[in-house]
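Email to the structure team, subject: carbonic anhydrase model.

Hi all, the expression group asked for a predicted structure before they design truncation constructs. Nothing fancy, just the tokens so they can compare against earlier work. One-line instruction: predict carbonic anhydrase, return tokens.
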Amino acid sequence: MNEPGTSVDPNDLTPAQAWRKLREGNSRFVAGSTDHPNQDAMRRHSLVDKQHPFAVIFGCSDSRLAAEIIFDLGLGDVFVVRTAGHVIDAAALGSLEYSVAMLNVPLIVVLGHDSCGAVTATIDSVKTGQMPPGFIRDLVEHIAPSVIAARRNGIHDVNTTVVEHVQQTTHRLVEQSRIISDAVENGNTAVIGVTYRLAEGKAEMVSGFGVL
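Reply from the structure team: attached below.
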């Protein structure tokens, strides 16, 4: 494990090693024995001119889902992209492609969670046929294919639908981005789907593309 204040070069980590590092941090968080690494002044100064994140977390914007906290990480460890319901739009996809093409990040994590409000709103809209106002409608329209796929498989509860949505999102990332799909095919990057349980604080992998 890296000591606080040291940098992590993503070229030194395989996708499997990056995922193991995240799992270890999450285990510390669940156990209440966090290290709070890379959060001191030395680390801050070392990152002024460069960054070497070892993973990118594409997660929901929910306030209970702070990636650096639940994986016990610090400054410069992960590149974080967040939208409500981890909805893929042009800005999110461009940010993820940047992390792969420019920062050589070996692991993309799609991070969903139980009791997701965006997924709940989409389930309600699919059930009632009523769309929410403003740009919330745009979120619902992006999540609706996952909800419909879940219903087709007999899934109607929110938390299991979240798992389906995470799985669908990992698939769409690889399908829609040539940069990401090439990195996965070349073995440089893996894309995994992870769900987080709010009560326990535990993150578990539910889907993946690439070698781990």
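The first helix runs from residue 15 to 31. The chain has one domain: 10-209. Ping us if the truncation boundaries need rechecking.
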